[in-house]
Amino acid sequence: MIERNERLKKLCSSLVDALLVFVAYLGAIYLRFNYIRFFRGGAGPAWDIAKDSRMLLGVAIYALALVTVFHLVRLYGRSRIRGLWWQCRVIVGLNLLGLVVWAAAFYYFRLGDFSRGVILLFPVLSTVALVAKRLAVRAYDRHQRAAGRGIKHILLAGGGGIAAKYLLALQQNPYYGFQVDGYLAAAPSPTLNCRYLGGFDKLGELLEGPQVDEVVIAFDTGEIESIPAVLNACDKNGTRVTMVPFYNDYLPARPTVDVLGDCKLINIRETPFDNLFNAAVKRLLDILGSLLLIVLTSPVLVVVAVGVKLSSPGPVLFKQERIGLNKKPFMMYKFRSMRQNAQQDTGWSKGTDPRKTKFGSLIRKFSLDELPQFFNVLKGDMSLVGPRPEVPYHVEHFKEEIPLYLVRQQVRPGCTGWAQVNGLRGDTDIAERIRYDIWYIENWTVALDLKIIFRTVFGGKMVNDEKLQ
Fold first, then answer.
1. What is the per-residue pLDDT for 32?
2. Residues 6 or more apart whose Cβ sits within 8 Å of residue 151
3. Which pLDDT does position 39 carry in this prediction?
4. What is the CATH number of the domain that holds 223?
5. Which of 50, 158, 449, 469 has the most CB atoms in a 10 Å sphere around its CB?
6. Residue 396 pLDDT > 90, yes or no?
7. In this structure, how many other beta carbons lie within 10 angstroms of the beta carbon of residue 139?
């Protein structure tokens, strides 16, 4: 039924993608030799090579290979709950990789007279075409689902808190196109806003009709003894099954599974940074970003340093021990904004703290006292984006009160973070801040870092954690 339609839809979608990639190549040729003149070469030999039948065959093979890779990374799989932003990132990344492959192929086959303009335009046009297609499909699907077409019908097995959480998630994401036709449980549940269909023994009878596309098992601990019966009924009728585990609240956003004999091992605390490629990309961005920011802010750094020196006796830089990656201490740098005091390692400052100098209040207002942390980033103590580092005193205090507190030490602390751009800075609820920090750690992407940096610069100010200095 709907599953067969979706398989056909995936096949058609992949063929359309391959066609769009091929057309993007033709578009790159057309634009290069009719409108774009800033590359060397005219419409001579390069134009002939670009239209050569062997090159066109090579592009066709490349398009099919790219679509195959799309299938391997599951770009077409579970498309209802795959975010559009995630799909766009995959397309951009693979097209950039394709550009490298193209350039390497031209070098290897000595195609030196091939148009560099076409090489550069091709992945750009391909990316634009593939993303535009998905935007159009997403808009069409939402229109269809709003009209009641293309709906995926779900039977929910479970009558407790996990089932209620699943229904709430569907309520919050209606554009996915899922409709729960009812739930099965040992007894009706007053907390589920859904039609009660009876006990689990009714499942086989309900699955005999053509209407059900999927069964979602959302059992609380008291219901898990019914899992074998539910799975047997689904397998007997060839119905797809999805499970929301009763330990759902303890799983990360993207859990991974290892296999040890007959045991499946779920990695509860694995993060995107455990992937060496992700860690290398983030560190590279930190190095390049901190170098750029140090150069751009160097005039401000000099002015603030002179102002701090003239405003009160003491050093220009304030150095304070903070806890960083893997719970290792490091010295964090800031411009001194207060007179030297004895409580700087244990307390919080306030907006009207009398120990602030007038110049210190000014630079704190615009978060200029935080600029030396770019040198911490360059050294590797910190990252541009990450959970804010705490002093040892607070780490020891909070780790006893908040069970997940030290999870944030699995990554480098940052100059700004997801919690801070959502308003959780300074003297705010630490438990809520930790919740945002862990969400960032589990869901990290380059795009998320760029979003946080953008919101820090344009949607607020650089984080000032208001520690006593």
1. 77
2. 145, 177, 178, 179
3. 45
4. 3.40.50.20
5. 158
6. no
7. 10
